[in-house]
Amino acid sequence: MNIPSPEHLTIALSAFAAFAAVLAASWPYVFPDNLTARMRRIEGERERIRVRERARLNARVRPASLRAEPRKLYTAIVDRFNLAKQAESGELVERLHMAGYRGQAPVTTFLAVRLLAPLVIFIVGLIYLFVVMRPDLSPVLMAAMAAGMGAVGYFAPTIYVKNRITKRQQAIGRAWPEALDLLLITVESGMGIESAFRKVGEEIAVQSAEVAEEMMLTTAELSYLQDRRQAYENLARRTGLDGVRAVVTSLIQAEKYGTPLGQALRVMAQENRDMRMSEAEKKAASLPPKLTVPMIVFFLPVLFAVIITPAVIQIMDI
Length: 318
What we know:
It is found in: Cell membrane. With about 325 residues, this protein is mainly α.
């Protein structure tokens, strides 16, 4: 048996080392890393989606401005009938703010529409009853029916605003725990409260435009109002949510006594998350009573018809 000499062994090992070096150098080109390329594409796609959504949000939000002027017709109606007195108490303005309407233009529009809606609905009702339907009723009774529809039109703007408030509060309540988590992260990273509000408003805009609007408006008020407490109280007043009021109370106490804000935000985020879960459980628990009447009205008659019809057919055949 021939034993390779040390020279041959050295040459073989050198050749293997050279082959391994060439293989290691050419491996990324021969067998590219598809996972890394895919991760880079995903990262780029996520950034493009974020830019697109922010552009879409800005395009949607930009037309709504505090400086928007009401229509001249609405302004003339409000001035002619002196309707501005109805908004002097501030309750109407506060409710419009809770619905997401800012500035003087929505107040003027609301007052004018509330005056015009009964008249317009009354005229439309008269035309529909006397021209389209033509029922066999006396003209006085049809005029009374049209007047009733006009009276309902007076409350239509208020009902619309209440509906907007409810939907806006639901949207804010769904996204508020996540906003608190982001606020906690930014505060614990060393940001000031104004920078934290601004950062959270920018990041959460894709998920909830309502929360982003409130955050950015609070940031502006923190920058310009002399009393920072007033900015926090305005946030609670505009939203009208208990979870937001609790956070505002913590922020005011932190501003006044210098207490750490991180632990309070962590607790508030968990409490708001529990409140959101309890609301979902409450809605789930209320489904059986709500389904009772539709089941009785729509399901049971069909079931009885399916069960009884074959017996009725057999009896008729006999």
